[in-house]
Amino acid sequence: MTVAAPAAPVAVAEPVSPAPPRRPVRPGTSPVLGLVPFAAYVLLFLALPTVLAVASGFFDGDGAFTLANVAALGDPVIVATFANSAWLSVLTAVVGALIGALACYALVGLEHGRARSLVDAASGVLAQFGGVMLAFAFIATIGIQGLVTVWLRDTFGIDIFAEGAWIYGLPGLVLPYIYFQVPLMIITFMPAMSALKPQWAEANLTLGGTRTGFWLHVGVPVLAPSFFASLLLLFANAFSSYATAAALASQGSQIVPLQIRTALTSETMLGRENLAGALALGMILVMTVTMWAYSLVQRRAARWQR
């Protein structure tokens, strides 16, 4: 005879009380407090030195107000210095932007594997590889007694310094500047290149379009604002660079940062230290216009990256 097992007690569901209404989240003071260290850093090491440097351009050595330093910005030597900085920045920005954009185009074809991660990491490091280290690397490579220079001279009879030691002048800054401009372009332009959706290319092919037509009517118009925004960023980066130029060009003041150094340290321009403040004012004006244009272009480029 089979004995039926006792029935298991049936669990009675407890009545679920309705969830209390959520209170609207109000912005507290914690996020604002998190910005205090950064704000203090910007204030102490950027804003305050900038104000003091610019203000010094309106006073002479005795502390009296004067516009002589600002008027010196119209001096032909100072104008030529700004022109040198401008063409050096434009040249290296354009070359760096073109090479960097081509590198980004090549990287888009790679999957997110080891090769792309390696390029991303190398770009992040090389974009900051400036100053004395970069200057020494170029001197050891293509300096007057550099490895490549001696190899070309002894093997092929090619003397790259037959016309003079150009590496220690303004032309010698072109290659080092391009060296750190290209990885910076990869860092800034790669997100825009990666934002190109494959569906757009598929739609173009579905509608009978060609690959060239896709780039002419879709790819280039979409990427153009990001490209020009990156180009302006490269221009600002080159215009404000100092350490590499100071390490390579030990003689002369061909660009504005070196002219500021000369005004502060030269023994032949005594009493003109405050001219550095007027030069800094000129640089700030150039950078302000550049960053204003950058923000306008970047705002347009952001439409395609949402």
Q: Tags for this entry?
A:
disordered N terminus; single chain; globular; mainly alpha; about 300 residues
Estimate the global geometry from the Cα principal axes: globular
Structural class: mainly alpha
Strand content bin: under 5%
Write down the secondary-structure element order.
HHHHHHHHHHHHH
Mean pLDDT: 83
What radius of gyration results from the CA coordinates?
29 Å
Largest sheet: none
Written overview of the protein:
- The chain has 306 residues and is mainly alpha-helical.
- The chain has 13 helices and no strands.
- The N and C termini lie far apart (74 Å).
Record the SSE blueprint.
Blueprint: H1 30-34, H2 36-56, H3 68-71, H4 76-108, H5 114-126, H6 132-142, H7 147-156, H8 174-194, H9 198-206, H10 211-239, H11 243-248, H12 256-265, H13 275-301
Helix pairs in contact: 2-13, 4-8, 4-10, 5-8, 8-10, 9-10, 10-13, 12-13
Question: What is shown here, in short?
Answer:
This protein has 306 residues and is mainly α. It contains 13 helices and no strands.
